[in-house]
Design the sequence.
């Protein structure tokens, strides 16, 4: 029994790793195409049909590029920082139910690596640890812009953890559990039972904080191209830089899964249609990340802090109090 | 068997991380090792089935060590090694031995006393999080509230300390107002 469980878990981990590192590569293709469409350009067209093989070309380039470790950097920390970003992104995926359980060759498969009963807390905690990658990379780089980026990373981490935690507290109070599967079952009744209808404020807050947690455009201050070159990534080259990228894109996919399961009903009753619905919602949230990048400028660091502490946090607190009063 | 393997693996990792944190003279190594050690400790909670405490360990300590990084960034160049002042070695040795004995005594006390009783046994059907909540809001209610009040006091003190002159914004003031403020400051210094 234990051995079978171990083998099953290892297979699941390998499958998730393969799928999502491939998806991270294809995600860059989507991002270029969507941005190009919105800015009236063509995007990648030359390599393969519709530029699809651009992903492979980028991969070959990243893998074969010289791995430069500059002088004066703290070499060990510099080398380990990208690994932290990529590894924590995939560690967070351990508690996400990607699909409803299905039967394969007469064997029931649960597409979740570890069904722990505190799934949400675990995912948010590990995703928070993921910000150590940019922080350490920036601090070890011996570069002013990287250091600035690291300082911003620490600021974003310390403030937006508060918003994610508080915004999600109200739905947790309603469901009475921290497990993502319980959340899904709570909303299994269909479209009208989705938590987004009863907790619209928490939904919006969590969505906004997700942009800060993944470091996407309106809050892309950690690696802001037009102020601090590439922030923590300035000194990196080749696959080390690529690992930061894989981590960022995997995080975008995983947070899309988390939002869909928490607020938009997840995979519903567990039918085939429900599973397709979950993938559709994830695709929408991923597309929304790209859409915002095309449509919005970056905010300033002081505006980011102002937004977090003077707007989002009070709203989240008020939301919790109102939810508690209504529930009593 | 897997539990034993996991326990010894994480025990080794935790101890080696904290060893690095104590012995290295490179600030970044020390901080990163501290963060890694704190996160590896959460593995023990997961092995023991206390999932909630494990996740809280990760959330709380990763944030706390992040604040330490911020201080490190403010006070020194973290890419250089730091020359530590070596004080009186006899005192350091004596204090280390004393604290080691103290820790040993604290850990061994319940084993020697042999009167551990589970006053609040596990409730059937309740999850990990609910168990923590039940103990926290029945047996440990008063310490919990006292801790909350202490945190509130610390928060108010922090706001008071950091909030001096917060209503003044140099960017919103006109040039003449700033000059006037400087004059006033000079006068005050001359008077005192």
Sequence:
């Amino acid at each position: 029994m234990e051995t079978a469980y171990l083998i099953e878990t290892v297979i699941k981990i390998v499958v998730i790793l393969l799928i999502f590192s491939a998806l991270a590569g294809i995600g860059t293709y989507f991002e270029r195409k969507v941005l190009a469409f919105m800015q009236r350009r063509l995007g990648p067209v030359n390599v393969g049909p519709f530029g699809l093989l651009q992903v492979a070309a980028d991969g070959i380039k990243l893998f074969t590029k010289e791995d430069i470790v500059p002088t004066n950097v703290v070499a060990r920390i510099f080398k380990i920082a990208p690994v932290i970003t990529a590894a924590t992104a995939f560690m967070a995926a351990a508690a996400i139910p990607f699909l409803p359980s299905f039967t394969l060759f007469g064997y029931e498969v649960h597409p979740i690596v570890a069904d722990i009963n505190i799934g949400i807390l675990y995912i948010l905690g590990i995703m928070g640890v993921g910000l150590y990658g940019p922080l350490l990379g920036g601090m070890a780089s011996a570069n002013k812009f990287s250091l600035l980026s690291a300082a911003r990373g620490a600021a974003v981490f310390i403030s937006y953890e508060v918003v994610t935690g508080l915004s999600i507290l109200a739905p947790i109070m309603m469901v009475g559990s921290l497990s993502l599967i319980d959340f899904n079952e709570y909303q299994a009744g269909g479209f009208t039972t989705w938590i987004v209808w009863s907790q619209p404020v928490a939904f919006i807050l969590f969505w906004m904080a997700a942009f800060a947690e993944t470091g996407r455009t309106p809050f892309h201050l950690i690696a802001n191209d037009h102020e601090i070159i590439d922030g923590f990534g300035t000194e990196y080259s080749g696959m080390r830089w690529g690992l930061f990228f894989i981590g960022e894109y995997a995080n975008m996919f995983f947070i899309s899964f988390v939002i869909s399961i928490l607020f938009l009903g997840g995979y519903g009753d567990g039918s085939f249609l429900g599973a397709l619905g979950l993938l559709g919602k994830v695709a929408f949230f991923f597309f929304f990340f790209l859409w915002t990048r095309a449509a919005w400028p970056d905010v300033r660091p002081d505006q980011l802090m102002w937004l977090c502490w003077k707007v989002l946090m009070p709203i989240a607190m008020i939301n919790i109090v109102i939810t508690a009063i209504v529930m009593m | 068997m897997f539990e034993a393997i996991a326990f010894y693996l994480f025990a080794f990792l935790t101890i080696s991380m904290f060893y690095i944190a104590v012995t290295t003279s490179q600030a970044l190594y020390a901080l990163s090792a501290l963060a890694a050690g704190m996160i590896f400790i959460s593995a023990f909670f997961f092995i023991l089935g206390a999932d909630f405490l494990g996740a809280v360990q990760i959330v709380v300590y990763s944030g706390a060590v992040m604040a330490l990084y911020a201080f490190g960034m403010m006070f020194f160049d973290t890419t250089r090694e730091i020359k530590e002042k070596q004080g009186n070695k006899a005192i350091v040795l004596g204090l280390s031995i004393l604290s080691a004995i103290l820790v040993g005594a604290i850990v061994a006390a319940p084993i020697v006393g042999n009167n551990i009783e589970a006053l609040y046994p596990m409730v059937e059907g309740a999850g990990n999080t609910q168990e923590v909540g039940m103990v926290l809001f029945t047996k440990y209610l008063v310490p919990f509230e006292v801790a909350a009040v202490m945190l509130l006091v610390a928060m108010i003190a922090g706001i008071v300390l950091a909030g001096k002159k917060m209503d003044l914004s140099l960017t919103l003031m006109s040039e003449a107002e700033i000059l006037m403020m400087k004059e006033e400051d000079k006068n005050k210094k001359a008077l005192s």
